Input
Amino acid sequence: MMASSYNAKEEDGHHHPGSVGSGGPGGVKSKKPDNTAFKQQRLPAWQPILTAGTVLPAFFMIGLIFIPIGIGLFVTSNNIKEFEIDYTGVDMSSPCFNCSQNYSWNSTSSCSCSVPFTLDQAFESNVFMYYGLSNFYQNHRRYVKSRDDSQLNGDKSSLLNPSKECEPYRTSDKKQIAPCGAIANSLFNDTLELFYIHPNGSRFAINLVKTGIAWWTDKHVKFRNPAGGDGNLSIVFQDTSKPVNWRKPVYELDPNDPDNNGFINEDLIVWMRTAALPTFRKLYRIIQKKKDNMTPTLPPGDYILEVTYSILTINVTPDYPVRSFDGRKRVILSTISWMGGKNPFLGIAYITVGSVCFFLGVVLLFIHHKYGNRNNNADIPN
Amino acid sequence: MHIYKPEQEPAVRSLGPENLLLKGATLKNTKKIYGVSVYTGMETKMALNYQGKSQKRSAVEKSINAFLCVYLCILISKAVVCTTLKYVWQSKEGQDEPWYNQKTQKEKDTFMYLKMFTDFLSFMVLFNFIIPVSMYVTVEMQKFFGSFFIKWDNDFFDPEIKEGALVNTSDLNEELGQVEYVFTDKTGTLTQNNMEFIECCIDGFQYRQRDVRSELDGFTVTDGPVHKLQPKAGVEKEELFLRALCLCHTVQVKEAGSEETLGDRLDGMLPKPEEERGFIASSPDEVALVKGAMKYGFTFLGLENKKMKIRNRQNDIEEYSLLHVLNFDPVRRRMSVIVQTRSGETLLFCKGADSSIFPRVRPEEVDRIRLHVERNATEGYRTLCVAYKQLTAEEYMVAETGLQDARLALQDREEKLMAMYNQLETGMSLIGATAVEDRLQEEAAETMEALQGAGMKIWVLTGDKMETAKSTCYACRLFQRGTELLELTVRTLEDGRSKREERLLELLRDYHKRAVQDAPPVRTGVVTRSWCGSQEYGFIIDGATLTLVMNPPRDADASLYRSLFLQICQNCTTVLCCRMAPLQKAQIVKMVKNSKGSPITLSIGDGANDVSMILEAHVGIGIKGKEGRQAVRNSDYAIPKLKHLKKLLLAHGHLYYVRIAHLVQYFFYKNLCFILPQFLYQFFCGYSQQPLYDAAYLTMYNICFTSLPILAYSLLEQHICIEILLDNATLYREIAKNAMLRWRPFLYWTLLGIFQGLMFFFGVRFLFSNPALQDNGQVFGNWSYGTIVFTVLVFTVTLKLALDTRHWTWLNHSAIWGSLAFYVFFSFFWGGIIWPFLKQQRLYFVFANMLSSVSAWLVIIILILLSLLPEILLMVLRKPRGPLSRQTAAVTPLSYKHLKERC
Output
């Protein structure tokens, strides 16, 4: 890729014929500097020079490599099926409109709504169900730091004395909140269920897997329930209070599965990994592909998304409220490839850069030819 | 002198400068003396000469400060923009304090303006990394370690004095690459200060001692035995002349052997080991003359009891009693002795500069000798004329009493003595003239030529006579045959009828017209002038005229004179200032230093009289010469020989400059593209001062991840190898005028930083439009975002340096690849453990998870490539007009291809 010459200069840097023997024993101690390659700045060095001639092939190479990668990425991304439903309920016509309104709210009954949708294409393989929020600043500094990782790691002392960073979500009713902090307090708690409407009208609940949605290391190392209580989390957490917005304490997040309860509840873990941008999606459930491999995971057809709102206690609206800050709530169904979710950006970027490099290669070739000739001419008069 | 002996009558004697024992003097011929200390403490010469050694700062540092101001402005404006936008954003309902992110009570209670202020400060803290604080540490380290290379350089080692170069300051390394004006002393710097008697002229006849001079490796081999003189002048005149040479001096004979070691250490004295008889004198000229006389058969044996002994040609000992020594002083420019022969004749011998002797001798004798004197002067020899006068007893008595009175006078002693001397030294008859050569330093001409080729203007500042200095300049090829000399000396001022001031102005105007206005317009570029055959000018001025220029009788003219003078000088390749006092040397340096464009000046000298000039210039260089260590001690760099200046400037200076300039630009650049994504992130996190990178990355970026490669670069880089730098002096011009730290390159680097910062941030931003980046569908959070940006950043910035590195030693390799490896290792390590002392485990397995995502890999690769693409492209496109351009090729027969092969 580079024109290079390896240059090892001989280390003998004597320029003074008279200096021979100045270091002889018994003579006057000479201050003559050491004649080492380093000290004489004569270390052997590789001296690459980038020239048109060397960069040209590199450009062509990059072009040749990047364009196929880009095409591959683009095709892969395009093959990913993605379906997005906004269920915020802004419109009057929206089925979830009622639940998102203040006045229709009756505090005793829960609110749920069904959003029908149709899939045109079959979703093969595992389907991943995300919820997406927009205009929700999970990356706000005050929010990001409002957590106590050692509490979440099962540290007993932190459990009963959470970090000051959790303020103002540190204590309630003179008890320490577990898990403390703004992040945990605002845990996304809409319950999403998916039903398939068979052409014959019957309705099948689709099995949504709750586990495997959080990073393995988070689930197994970073987040841990406090020890003690013989596995009974209600004893462990007895001196703590639930986060103010929650309806139920942390040890009731998933009472059916002890490995998904308390701090190691994966919904909590996913939520605790703060998003990078105000519009984000988080993995909610996984729909595993059917064992027979014959029918697609989600065949094309009609579906119903059933949203059940659990009530946030301090809040005036029943659902997970986003309208106060112009937010949106979405559900995304997506298949996944080796490169992750659907994102045409990488493919386009690779194709563009590859083509630009290729184009530059052509231009450079042209310039190089022209310049090369001129250079030769210029040398002749000398 | 014996002032008082008990058995004698008390006599009044005078104490004058000749009785002063200066620092470093050694006792001779006596075991002890009694002395009185005069001039103590602050009155000593040393204290008086001590100029408050103001700290010298290099031009690079000034550029750094300017850049720093720009970045400070960027920092403040960033903070202001963010603070403003934050409050604009918050004014919208529901944004400031959404239900999920309540403030604490304390925050709510805080006064609004105080909150704004603290927000502003928080942004300042968040963005403060844009100010490269660590650069100062690196620059200091670079300078400190870099200066060792000068000390270590074997080429600077001089086998004669068994010493190499000395570095007294490490702050000015890069300034060596920026020199525009070189002020050099003549004696001892351009010349060896090793006088040799060349010829004499007796009564108009020339006596040249040697016809063939073998010159080998800078050492003259003399053909030992006494040369037969061709009898041209009468024997009597010859002998008189030689006697005069033997008597008219203050040389002392050094006893062979015993005091040799002592003599070696004496400052300013010349041990002469090659003869069985050594001479010691305050001026090397005198030794040369005495030795010259010795070669013609008259040997000075020494002074004992006020009797000077001479062995003449017949091997007889002649004895003369020394009556008076009329000392040499620079105003009279001559010295005399009054001696009495055995036969009772009283003789006055006088020797001195032609201009001071000729008016005092009979005019008819002058013409014959003047011819020789002038010819010798143009050949670069130092000439002296010798005259004598016979004093009658009465005359002597008058002189004796006059001198005695004058010496004892308490007031105006100097003036009285002077008057007495002048009175005595009249009506003499001229016997001859001598020529002494001060040989050029080794490779003086080559060095000067190289420096001129490098675009430096050379000013020779000397106390010597104009003719001598001029011939030295010719010998050093400072003046070439085609050089048009513009003289502004007392002589040119006086040949007009008009008054001196008017004449001065007239001449200045005339020269200005010739040298400045009529000269082809000089391109004010980096690469300039003089190779294309335009007329070169040399300018000569002497001390007296310079005083007139600097302090004209009417103050109003001062600025006019000065500006005319400066403009003329700036258009001359060489300026020769002769008959300079040490202070005037410094004055000139100061004037040039403060002139328009404040050029970088370099002074080089070897003696104590150059100290003021060395201190005044931007860079002071001392030569470890024969005139003691004063200059060396006060210099910034000391080298054993003049010829070493070439490598010091052309190779070391050039490299240091390129290295440090690149270092500075690189530091600003790398901090800009480090912090720009963090700034951009504020637009996406509600202006909440959320850092993009983890705290560990923030602190380690400048300290660990990106510091070593640039340090290695700034110590080892040789973008052009040393041999080529030495061969092509013109390469030096390409970095002249701080070329790499001007606003244009700075703008380039800044734009590069901005471009890359934008690339890093938005590239990852688009990737994160779908944060599900892993093949198991799991999503990445904000710390992953930061880590991807940071990884791209570290790699890009390091690879950018790798692209700039032209000289890859194993140290560069290990620094660059080692840093990258360390980054990866550190990231694994930092994210691999739950750190007990950390409140938040933000990066726990973030890096490892990032690497498990193919998309992250792909985005990192493409962003690195895309960020470096413009740089690569520019590098390729710039080559035709690059540093080794055709212009260079036109000067030297080497074309770029050859350079490449040789390098």
Observations:
- Residues 57 and 147 of chain A are 53 Å apart (CA to CA).
- The longest strand of chain A covers residues 111-119.
- The first helix of chain A runs from residue 52 to 79.
